[in-house]
Amino acid sequence: MFLCVLKNIKLNYTQRVNYLEKTINYTNNMNKTIDNLAADNIRALAISMVEKANSGHPGGAMGGADFLHILYSEYLNFDPTEMDWAFRDRFFMDAGHLSALMYAQYHLLGNYTKKDLQNFRQWGSVTPGHPEVDVLRGIENTSGPLGQGHAMGVGAAIAAKFLDARFESLFTHKIYGFITDGGVQEEISQGVGRIAGHLGLNNFIMFYDSNDVQLSSMTDEVSSEDTTMKYEAWGWKVINIDGHDHDQIRKALDDANAETEKPTLIIGKTIMGKGCVLANGDIYEGECELHGKPIGDTKADFTKTLINLGANPESSFDVYTDVQAYYSEVLAKKTATAAAKKATIATWKAANPALASKMEMFLSGVLPDLDLSQVVQKANVATREASSAVLGYLAENVENMIVSSADLSNSDKTDGFLKKSSILEKNNFKGGFLQAGVAELTMTAIANGIALHGGVIPVVATFFVFSDYMKPAIRLAAIQELPVKYVLTHDSFRVGEDGPTHQPIEQEAQMRLMEKVKNHSGHQSLLALRPADAIETSVAWDMALKNTTTPTALILSRQNIKDIPAGTSRYQEATGAKKGGYLVKSVVNPDITLFANGSEVSTLIEAAAILEKENNLKVNVASIISEGLFKQQSAKYQESIIPKGKLVFGLTAGLPVNLEGLIGDSGKVIGLSHFGYSAPASVLDQKFGFNAESASKEILKYIQESK
Predict the structure, then answer these.
(1) Are strands 592-596 and 648-651 parallel, antiparallel or unpaired?
(2) Which residue in 504, 539, 538 sits closest to 629, CA to CA?
(3) What is the set of active-site residues?
(4) Could you tell me where the DSSP H helices lie in 8-53?
(5) Which of 522, 555, 588 is where one domain is finished?
(6) How far apart are CA 287 and CA 277, in angstroms?
(7) Cα–Cα distance measured from residue 223 to residue 528, given in angstroms and rounded to the nearest whole number
(8) What radius of gyration, in Å, describes the C-alpha atoms of the chain?
(9) pLDDT tens digits, 652-695
(10) In CATH, what number is assigned to the domain containing residue 432?
(11) Cα angle vertex 201, ends 199, 206, to 5°?
């Protein structure tokens, strides 16, 4: 355009060069002006949200505004007309307390209204205090507990690599992360950093907003590490920049996008409360108090700060006119870029109809036709062994599954999957098994990211007792309604010789509590399944696979379990587990109903045989694989299994509370009220009273007490 203008102007060569340089400088200055305006607009919106709500974290949002503006306006590829487009770049926020920063940025993109921002942190608002996954508005993950957000980002990067290895470089999008000092300090960052570097996730680019301030202190009071060297040791590319210099941000993002071997950490030195001023107009930045309370409650002056940022204090939720015009152009460019990518994908689909059909199935979450009744189960095996058989079947029949184990695959028996697949490794994501190492929390949070990305089914495994390490990420999976599958083996004191540190006692109660908590869709937030034998384990896996709206925990035994006696078809009978509970032994007009889950069911069947033979009692026995699911059934069905006002007796290898919600006013539950001990499992069964003889005596005692 400039050359066309010059052709119509009679200037000598030197004059033309000078004219062109001035024009380019003017354009660059205009770009710098609009970039600064946009960043200041984000700052003004963020502090206005916090001020109106009288709650929130303004300082970090002010510091991170420059990076987010450059990222979203120039680098992050998405389709504004289809925010859930599968081939979009994704942004994972780790520091959920910076929600105001995200909402302000997305307001410029048109995803939130002014009213949405004004209702920040209020009842019924779409702008909660910490971001909650809302893909259509651009929020890829729920965040708040520091460290988990960037772990989910790494999970999404793994999912993208996995899919890209199967669909000819269609999934080349980038995953961006945003982390702060607290997230770097959280222990989970060790596992995330190690795994991302080890796998060479060059599609993961993370900005570290390093402002030297955390909520209650300056960072130099708690840490003196060299973060650059730490991440480089894990195999990351590390770039240090001034986090407010837009040209340095661009250069860092260019270099990160060009990287082919490593994930990238961009350490941006930023200023907490960038743009804050005192009442007299003096700069007031970098102070700890600016982190976690409204600007008006600090030494800074809210009104003067708004003026300093170019905002109108009388209407501080406004988008600046020039910024609004600029972002209209940004959105048009994003839409055009996405349209070009969609055209490329459409051409590929036309040329590869079979692969295209498979890809659409992956992305839709639809399972292939499976028949787990065909999985051959050995007789009287541990349910972890039964799970291994199912996983072997899934490895051959479900092509979009990633299974991960915390260095226990040969013990939690996820090696049933591994033997028919291969591990994920740098530059080779054709396998389906992630060796996470000893990092249960990291592994579980990564699985959340895999699920959030879409197109891949995540499964994670460890010993049940180590689910304690997983709980924060399990909770976020439940909140986000993610269909992650947990394989939790060695489910009771029968772990035996390893002793109380490895014998779960209270863990089932903790997991069952999640069945009692409703998610925001009004459903139980987690499905916990403890199958009674090998065939019921196959059914439990079928239930887990078909549960696409919440996480599922499969709680499995280390020791062998006697099979439940079958009528015509044990598998068909075991499908009663899909109602949460069913009778595995049934008589007409029973004197008493016994119930349990897991290995205790077979113990009660043996106890029932003793009671029938020696005491002429008629006994029903029920397997209640999931209390939460069982209680969703009709009252009539529940009473047909566990009758009200009748004698009912429960047995659990965990705390009695595991079953106490099922016994009504007159029932009884026997469980454990102490930690385990180191001894062979058979000895512990005898010492703790978990054999048929001891159980039958407790049942008779209960019957006598009830007369």
Answers:
(1) parallel
(2) 539
(3) 440
(4) 13-53
(5) 555
(6) 11
(7) 40
(8) 30
(9) 999 999 999 999 888 999 999 999 999 999 999 999 999 999 99
(10) 3.40.50.970
(11) 130
